[in-house]
Design brief:
3-stranded mixed beta sheet; 19 helices; about 10% strand; Fic-like fold; 11 strands; 4-stranded mixed beta sheet; alpha+beta
């Protein structure tokens, strides 16, 4: 039975154990089973490959490196730690034994790149160039040829810092194109007379729900500033330090505005009781944030322009990597969600000028949103040593920089694809139906009583939140004190008839068709 089998690690799992390392888990782990048959076991974002012990009897780091590079992709965090520690003479002997072997060349190249030392081996002059990252497994970037080892350095960025995004069916470019086309189809159905109001309504909804995720209600002025930023999402210069600082100034309380990257250790947590904190995310130490943010900015700007990575995948990496780095003391979450729109707009995903209120879906699906964040934050926390003092200030006592160099946010990109699909298929149509129904309700209400706009909007909103009727308490609201009982009954019926069968969602707090005008 499976419970009686002995599992022996192979590839990267063996190397991590042999060198006593604890990197962020790779997307795949391999084991030899005794007894056992060939099995692939999948969880939400991990794969475990089980091989019969008779198939692989590997010994020594080079055999496990060959296995890993052949079957497990590129675990650069682990390779960066291991390859420079291998005896130089053994690497030279390994390469001499198979001088044109693809993996021998990869190992030699990585040794020289990571150690800064040159092997006592001649440059290769024969053989095809081989890719560093398998382009069938990963989204790759422009090829930079390394002539000495005849290697195609095709990472999305550099060996110091690079996204590692995998080509999985859920992230096929065709799926992005289908979502884009569906968005265009929906927008084309909006009558011209309400199109601009619909846009303003969607901008208002995205603003309110993004703040609501943080359990905050912005002032009208701050909400208007955030909406103005969303309007500029495609054209604004946000992907510089100054651009992000200015963005942070626009969305947080002025008392907590930043002058640059944070200089303290921050974290994301939840207070369970006075003095008792549950930590969710441990970002990099402040001394590392400058290096990491400089690299992140370069990658983010590239992903806003490249065609090598589909738009939704690019937006997921930029936005979630930002929130993991947490470069400011306040406002990181709202900037993280703003960056989704910035990248999508820069990549011309969706209709120009149309905001997709994805934050409403994130607010309505907190468990799924949390799961997307935790796909990296949980394994990171398990590899972070930290202390909280009496004032709940955090100190991280171990080095964590390496955990952030090669973020594989494939699970996050899959999640964002699902969030955007729900936004396009459910949220946007519902909001448009709400606007259609609102106009119908207001037309019918005017035939009964020509109410002031604010009073009419309040009436509709209160009915909508109470199954089509005013509650007994709200019937006595001072705004309706001049109405007769018969008029209230007829107004309720007009609203109910307008919204019947629309399946429209209730408007967000503080967001209404009237406010959108």
């Amino acid at each position: 039975m499976a419970t009686d089998r002995t599992l022996t690690p192979l590839g990267y799992a063996w190397l991590a154990r042999e060198f006593t390392l604890n990197p962020i888990p790779h997307f795949v782990e391999s084991y030899a089973a005794d007894p056992g048959t060939r099995i692939t076991e999948r969880t939400a974002d991990r794969v475990r490959e089980i091989y019969p012990h008779t198939v692989y009897r590997l010994t020594g780091p080079f055999e496990h490196l060959e296995f890993a590079l052949n079957r497990e992709g590129l675990h650069l965090q682990l390779l960066r730690a291991i390859v420079p520690r291998l005896p130089r003479s053994e690497i030279e002997a390994f390469v001499r034994a198979t001088p044109t072997g693809a993996n021998a060349r990869r190992i030699a190249y990585l040794y020289e790149a990571f150690s800064g030392e040159r092997l006592d081996l001649p440059d290769l002059t024969l053989g095809n160039y081989v890719p560093l990252a398998d382009p069938d497994l990963y989204f790759t970037g422009p090829v930079r040829r390394v002539q000495r080892w005849r290697i195609q350095q095709n990472l999305l960025h550099t060996l110091e810092f690079s996204p590692m995004l995998r080509r999985v069916p859920e992230l096929a470019p065709e799926r992005d194109a289908a979502l884009h086309a569906r968005c265009a189809e929906l927008v084309a159905q909006v009558p011209p007379e309400i199109f601009q109001r619909a846009l303003r309504y969607l901008y208002a909804k995205e603003t309110r729900t993004s703040y609501a995720i943080e359990r905050e209600t912005p002032t009208q002025q701050r909400a208007e500033r955030f909406m103005a930023l969303l309007h500029r999402a495609a054209a604004g210069e946000f992907l510089t330090q100054d651009g992000l600082v200015n963005l942070q100034h626009a969305i947080v309380d002025p008392r907590f505005a930043a002058n640059g990257w944070r200089t303290i250790q921050n974290y994301v947590g939840q207070s369970l009781a006075p003095g008792v904190e549950e930590v969710h995310l441990v970002p990099p130490r402040p001394e590392d944030i400058g290096t990491l943010m400089s690299a992140w900015l370069e990658v983010a700007r590239t992903l806003c322009q490249t065609e090598h990575v589909p738009p939704v995948t690019a937006a997921a990496w930029v936005a979630w990597a930002f929130v993991y780095l947490h470069p400011f003391e306040d406002g990181n979450g709202r900037i993280h969600r703003f960056l989704i729109h910035h990248v999508l707009a820069a990549r011309r995903f969706g209709q120009t000028g149309v905001i997709l209120p994805v934050s409403a879906v994130l607010l309505n699906r907190p468990a799924d949103y949390d799961a997307s964040l935790e796909s990296f934050s949980v394994p990171l926390k398990a590899r972070s040593d930290y202390e909280l003092d009496g004032d709940l200030r955090m100190t991280v006592t171990n080095a964590t920089l390496e955990h952030f160099r090669y973020l594989d946010l494939t699970p996050v990109a899959i999640a964002l694809h699902g969030f955007l699909a729900e936004t396009i298929e459910r949220e946007v149509p519902s909001e448009l139906r709400f606007l259609h129904a609102y106009d119908a309700a207001r037309t019918a209400m005017r035939e009964i009583v020509d109410l002031p706009e604010a009073t009419a909007n309040l009436f509709v909103r209160l009915c909508f939140h109470n199954q089509g009727r005013l509650s007994k308490t709200k019937r006595g609201h001072k705004s309706f004190e001049k109405l007769t009982e018969d008029e209230i009954d007829r107004l309720e019926s007009a609203v109910a008839a307008a919204y019947a069968g629309t399946n429209a969602l209730p408007p967000s707090a503080g967001t209404s068709p009237a406010n959108a005008d």
